[in-house]
Structures are given as C-alpha cells and as structure tokens.
Amino acid sequence: MSLDQLIERCKHDDAQAQGQLYKLYASKLFSVCLKYSRNYVEAEDNLQDAYLTIFKKIGQFKSQGSLEGWMKRITINTALQRYRSVGVFDIVNEDQIEDVTVEVDDDDVSIDYLLSIIQELPDRYRLVFNLYALDDYSHKEIAAMLTISTGTSKSNLARARMILKEKIKHYKANHNSQSI
Predict the structure, then answer these.
(1) Which key words are in the record (predicted)?
(2) Which of 13, 24, 96, 142 could form a Cys-Cys staple with 153, CB 3.0–4.6 A?
(3) Distance between CA atoms of 15 and 22, rounded to whole angstroms?
C-alpha cells in the first residue's frame, strides 16, 4: 500500500491504517518528543497526544510537502502546548542579550552527554535551544510558537548556550583530570 493510500484510509478513521502510520513514524516522532519533554514519561505522553491530533487533523493534510514534516510540526506544537500556559518564559530587555557560542570538541564530549545536558536545561531555555539550534526555527518563529517576544527567545538561547558552555567546561576539566 502506498503512503497516499495509507493517508486516505486514515482520513476515514481506519484503525489498521492508523496503526501502520503510527509504526512508520513513531520512533522519529518520539525522538522529537524527547527533545521537547522533561523526561521519558512526558515524551511518551506527548507522542500519544501528538498522534491523537494527527489522526484528528489528517483530513487537513493536502499532500503538499512531506507528511513527516507535517507530523513533526504537530508533534513539536503538542509538546510546546504544555509550556504555553504555565508561564515558564521570562520577559527580558533585548539590550541585555549577549551572544554566546558553545565550542564542542567531538573527541572530548559524547553525544549522549550533550543530549543529557540539553535535557537538564530549564524548560524555557531547552525549548528555545532545541527549536533554534536543532530544528532551525528563527527567533521570530519561536516567539510566535511560544507566545514570547523575539528578545526573550534570543535571551533564552543565549542563557541556554551559557549553561551548556559551563557544563561542557566543567565536564572537560573533570574528564581531563581523571585521565592524567
């Protein structure tokens, strides 16, 4: 069965087709959920909620662009919805924003460690960092998605980078002293 046929069957609430669509994309969408969730259990909840929305709105998918991209946007928005009403974002003065870069030497820091320290970031920093650095959204798009100002988005990204830079510096210092 082609993807178009699968989508068409999902539009008619065919449970078997929905199960197939779930199996096709669940692992990719779960990794998206992990980036935007505090922990594994919350990521599972976000994935479940995202699929409920996907199946509810699949009639709106017009086969323009990729189905995976459409599903990913719904998944990100589902995860972000948990934070919109909680007020996890600070209002900041845009003049106070300092751009920070994070230098990572692949030999010194494992990808698992990087993912774990990103996961440990406070919600407001983790969400903006993931949207900007990992999913290539602009500050303007992030501001609209999270209902914050562009300055708040820039500030939260800078603070996330500062925290990550410090954690990587600390990790390298401990890691290098242990290998001596």
Answers:
(1) Sigma factor, Transcription, Transcription regulation
(2) 142
(3) 10
Number of C-beta neighbours around residue 31 at 10 A? 12
DSSP 5-69: HHHHHHHTT-HHHHHHHHHHHHHHHHHHHHHTSSSHHHHHHHHHHHHHHHHHHGGG--SSS-HHH
Contact predicate 89/124, CB 8 Å = yes
Last residue of a domain, one of 26, 55, 84: 84
Domain count, the chain: 2
CA 42 vs CA 33, 78, 122, 123, 129: distances in Å = 8, 11, 15, 13, 19
Amino acid 137: pLDDT: 95
Report in angstroms the alpha-carbon separations of 117 from 24, 51, 131, 135.
29, 28, 16, 17
Taking only the tens place, the pLDDT of each residue in 131-142 is: 999 999 999 999
- pTM, rounded to two decimals: 0.73
Task: Give the domain range for residue 111.
Answer: 94-178
Which carries the bigger pLDDT value, residue 112 or residue 29?
29
Helices 111-120 and 150-178 pack at an angle, to 10 degrees, of: 130
